[in-house]
Amino acid sequence: MNHTGFWSHPLVETAGYFSVVTLCLIVSMVLFEIVTKYKNWEEIRKGNLSVAMATGGKIFGVANIFRYSIEQHNSLPQMIGWGLFGFTVLVFAYLLFEFLTPKFKVDEEIQADNRSVGFISLCISVGLSFVIGASIS
Hints:
- It is a single chain.
- The protein has seven helices and no strands.
- The chain is mostly helical.
- The longest helix is centred in the first third of the chain and has 26 residues, at 10-35.
- The relative contact order is 0.16.
């Protein structure tokens, strides 16, 4: 029996990529929870739209980076490695956003439901995910 055919079947590959990326997305959301000063899911439960926008942007950004990684790599370890590298760059960009806004604290503004800051955070995550993804080789 040829097992190579089974593992290279498009449905099996898709299920594998989906499973691995979902796991990586969960891990990345846990790491973002550690990086931010507020509890993302608690704030979202309370109806904080700014936190929802910022978190949604991070989810989109991470998923988009993995999309590029899947497109560029044929092996699962390479796809995971480049995807995690891209995620690390996205975390760095988030910290840079905080550093480049010395007049206010991004985390505090988002927690206070400042929707302008939440929206810019979303745009930064989404926008940079395209740049990071396109640079994955």
